[in-house]
Amino acid sequence: MQRTAWSKAAGPVPSDRLRSVQRLQHVPQKQNKTKGKVQEPSKSKAIRKLESLAEGVRKSSGREKDPKGGCFCQAREHDLSVYTPICRGCGLILCAINLPYYACPHCSAAILSDIARSSLYSRLDEEVSKQIAKEEEERSRVVLQARDAEGAFPVLPGSTTPPVPSTSSRPAAQTHKILSLNSKTKKYTVSSYTNTPVSSRPASRAESEVEEVHRVPAPSPEVDFVKRMPDRNHPWSNMRYCQAPC
User: Fold this and answer.
1) Which residues contact 103 (CB under 8 A, 6 or more apart)?
2) Cα 22 from Cα 27, distance rounded (Å)
3) Helix (H, G, I), strand (E, B), or coil: what is residue 205?
4) Residues 6+ apart with CB under 8 A from 217
5) How far apart are alpha carbons 167 and 163 in whole angstroms?
6) Is pTM beyond 0.70 here?
7) What's the pLDDT tens digit per position in 109-149?
8) Which of 116, 93, 119 is closest to 106 using CA atoms?
9) Interatomic CA distance for residues 185 and 22, integer angstroms
């Protein structure tokens, strides 16, 4: 039987006495799923507010009462409601604190009809689209101003505008790789982990707490009146806040 240089049994050739080296197997690294995805800019407060209003109009029936009781300032302390300025049932003037998808805080009647609710939802959806386009135009304007300040070439018409770099001071996440060797199997594995540092800047009070709006409560149902006859000797006395038993 002929033996080759790679036979296990020792032969006259010097290469037969060499030990075969076991090749190390490379473990393929898992690809990061988030790699390649473009991070979308966070929504502004105005867009979140419009989307919340549209979602509330779409889901509510219009007969639910505001759990916070609404506001009875009648647009004296807050702005007049743009969507539902008045209750057609009792005539109460509604300020912007009274959301359009809740019932009237006074007579509990539905402020919007089914047709008006559908029309308001379409209006809010259109306002969201306009606000997004407005903010995108503002971001593009800021990018062009930054390029002009740096002396870069102007952007040609029809070319795509690169995304605005994030101004957040949060440090970027770092990826580390570890090479480990198994002493028994003589195999090595490559593992990676991502270290996401925590921003040292504490959250501001405006970010951590929701701004609480002052609401004017409903007036008392009792009518304040004088419960005793006035004294003829003292017609100028204060009958409303009298110290004697009334």
Assistant:
1) 62, 63, 64, 65, 66, 109, 110, 111
2) 15
3) helix
4) 69, 72
5) 12
6) no
7) 999 998 999 999 999 999 999 999 999 999 999 988 888 87
8) 93
9) 10
